């Protein structure tokens, strides 16, 4: 609790992390994201050197 980032971490957990474990939480099915994932991985990516 004495860490400078403690409050930010606690806020993140309350807003985004903890609700991911709620079976009654309304979320989109994984199939909803498939077209987006396919677009991202459709083209080869190159690392700049």
How would you describe this protein?
This protein is mainly α and about 50 residues long. It has one domain. Helix content is about 45%, strand content about 0%. The protein has two helices and no strands. The radius of gyration is 18 Å and the shape is flat. The model has no long low-confidence stretch (mean pLDDT about 90).
Report the uncertain regions: none
Number of helices: 2
Integer average pLDDT: 89
**Series of secondary-structure elements, N-terminal to C-terminal:** HH
Secondary-structure-derived class = mainly alpha
What gross morphology would you assign? flat
What's the structural domain tally? 1
Computed Rg: 18 Å
Total count of strands: 0
